[in-house]
Every structure is written in C-alpha cells, then in structure tokens.
Amino acid sequence: MSAETEPSVTVTDVELDAELTSTGLVASADEAEYALRIGDDSLILAQQLGWWISRAPELEEDLALGNIALDLLGHARNLLHFAGTALGKTEDELAYFRDEHEFRSAWLFEQPNGDFGHTIARGLLTSAFQFELYTQLAESSSPGLAGIAAKSVKEVAYHRDHAVQWTLRLAGGTDESRSRIERALINTWPYLDELFRDDELHERFDAAPRPSALREPVMNVLRQVLAEAELDEPKTSESSGDGRHGHHSTYLGPILAEMQVLARRHPDASW
User: N or C, which end of the chain has less CB nearby within 10 Å?
Assistant: First the structure.
C-alpha cells in the first residue's frame, strides 16, 4: 500500500452541523445510539493523541499526530451533535457530562499511547477499521450518518496511510524499532475482535453495516500491511472488551478525568 505524506485537508464540523440544522435532520433513537458508539471512539482517540503534541519523536510527527487528533475531534463533534438531536443534549454535554458507564467507545480506542510503536500499532488498527466503516456507512439510508461518513472517510484515508507508512518504517528499520512494533501489535491485536461483534442494535438497525461484515475487508488490509512489512499476524486471545455496553477498560476513567475536569469545574463558562 502506498502512503501519502501530505497533511489531510480538514473538512470542518461547522459546515456539516450547518447542514444538519438547515435540513432539520433529527436522529432516531437507534441512529443516536449508533452515532454515540462511533463518535465516542473518535473522541477518546483524539484525546489520547493530543498527549503527543510536543512529545513526538520529530517535529513532523508533532504536526501529523496533532492533525489526526483534530480530524478525529471533528468527526466526534459531528456524531455527538447528531446524536444530541435525539437526546436533547449538546455535543459538549455529551462529551463532558456523561459518566464512564455512559460512554460507548470500544476498548481498542482506550488503550494507552505507550511508546511511539504502540501509538502507531493502535493507529493502524483503528484507522483500518474506521476507513472501511465510513466507506460503507457513506451509502447508508440515514442521511445524517451518510453525510458524516462521506466527509470523514477522506480524512481517515490519510490516518490509515500515515499508520501504514510508519509500520513499514519501524518494521524495516533497526532491530530495536522492529521489536517494538512487533510487541505493540501483539499487545493491541486482542482488542480488534470487539469491533466486529454484532449485537441487538444491529438486529433492528439496518442503516449501518453490521460489524461482522467489516471483519474480512479490514483484516485483508491489515494482512496486506503485515505481509509487506514481513511481520507475522499476532496469535493472541481475544479481549473481553464490551465498551459498546458501557463496560470499559481501566484506562477510560483517567482519560475522562483529564478531558472533563475543566468543564465540570466551571460548567457555566463560555469562550
């Protein structure tokens, strides 16, 4: 797979929010639940990636990881805004004033940054999943979800290429860099399976692709990258992650504490 090095062109969430408002789109209960799931994924990963600003191994990566974080934050804002039309809440209320058990992010997005290799491994898995998800969701019968997905997939294509480029670079670099990306893939691989599990929402909501239908195309991309990098597919047990139903890893609590502290301390503040 070729990897592009140009920065993504951000499509702002303001533009899409205006579209949602002007067309009077209001999410159904199922659309809202689904939007919360994938919106929380992006929100939590954006918060994680923000840590790398001023800490990345080189200036270009400071910019790249920061830009990816901003893209993901834009996706999250659009999805939470859409969910909020059904729930009677703003995107800020959904981001800052829900408790841990009310979030619906998958465990993979909650995993710690670790070293740079772990951040790249996590990014490879999450972007491969999100790219296929948004590609299929762009054809949804839900105008709100389809519009968000069509805009988001353009940016996720860059996120995936960035992760692929660094996976190949680390695997083909020194013995140390290769061992680190190998170890990172082994540590993150168990959390993939949760992304492909169907549940009761997908039994009744046919406007979004079933997670199980995403498994084959996502795994095909990942196996292609591993083959090019001459890395073995990790043989690990599946995690018991169930973030879609509010049962989270031990990592989410501290992430939310950091993300929400200012808004909760000054709930009436505006700027």
Answer: C
